[in-house]
Design a protein that fits this description.
Number of domains: 1
Strand content: under 5%
CATH class: Mainly Alpha
Number of strands: 0
Helix content: 40-55%
Order of helices and strands: HHHHHHHHH
Structural class: mainly alpha
Number of helices: 9
Oligomer: single chain
């Protein structure tokens, strides 16, 4: 039984890697089997609400929580998109926040709304530069601001100094591309992204480096932990 289980896990791992790196040559049905998604309806709705690419949101959720709504990090981040209570409080106090006054971080729709609001805020802040926005979701605005200054205003994945953040951004973008290939259109044929979202000054991470916690967005364990949404 142990040998059989080990063989099965090896097969799953090989197929998962193939799904990420070989693309269309792996049948989509197999890729979907080893890369399942959850909360598709809720993610599609939240993405449309904040003018986001639903595949990008799927990838962030995958790398943050592996689609587990009850995940809590040692630093206190909660839920599908690993939102800190302090960040949720800041968002709920903004004039353009149209969610509930006291969002529940373990509630799927509330957490997605908060995380998508913040991701849209970052994309607006960095003029739709996905690498900078995703990096800031992980390492914080203060840190990314420093990197952008040092990089002459444009951040590329290879130029991200923190290995954990560089790995995180690579995985998010890889999963986004994978989901585009193996799942049917989530945006209902609409062109997403580029919308007008929150335009106010947001929480700043203060340039601190926040270590990732147990797990990775490899599809084997729970997602990365507390990320960039820090005061």
């Amino acid at each position: 039984m142990k040998l059989a289980l080990a063989f099965l896990l090896m097969v799953v791992a090989v197929v998962a890697i193939a799904g990420l790196w070989l693309g269309p040559r792996v049948p989509s049905g197999i890729s979907r089997w080893v890369n399942p998604i959850s909360y598709e309806t809720e993610i599609r709705a939240a993405s449309r609400r904040y003018h986001l690419d639903p595949y990008l949101v799927l990838a962030v959720v995958k790398c943050e929580s592996s689609f587990r709504s009850d995940v809590r990090s040692p630093a206190g981040a909660v839920g599908l998109m690993q939102v800190l209570p302090s960040t949720a409080e800041w968002i709920a106090g903004q004039n353009d926040w149209d969610g509930v006054a006291s969002p529940e971080l373990t509630a799927v729709e509330d957490n997605l709304a908060l995380g998508c609001y913040y991701l849209r805020f970052l994309l607006d802040l960095y003029q739709e530069a996905e690498v900078a926005a995703v990096a800031a979701y992980h390492a914080g605005q203060g840190t990314v601001g420093t990197w952008l200054s040092e990089a002459g205003g444009k951040l590329v994945v290879e130029g991200i100094p923190y290995p954990e953040t560089r790995d995180y951004v690579e995985r998010v973008l890889d999963y986004r591309d994978l989901y585009v290939r193996i799942y049917p259109p989530l945006g209902g044929g609409e062109i997403v992204g580029g919308g007008t979202g929150p335009g106010v000054e947001g929480p700043v991470a203060g340039g601190e480096r926040w270590e990732s916690w147990a797990g990775s967005c490899s599809g084997v364990s729970i997602g990365r932990g507390v990320i960039s949404n820090r005061l």
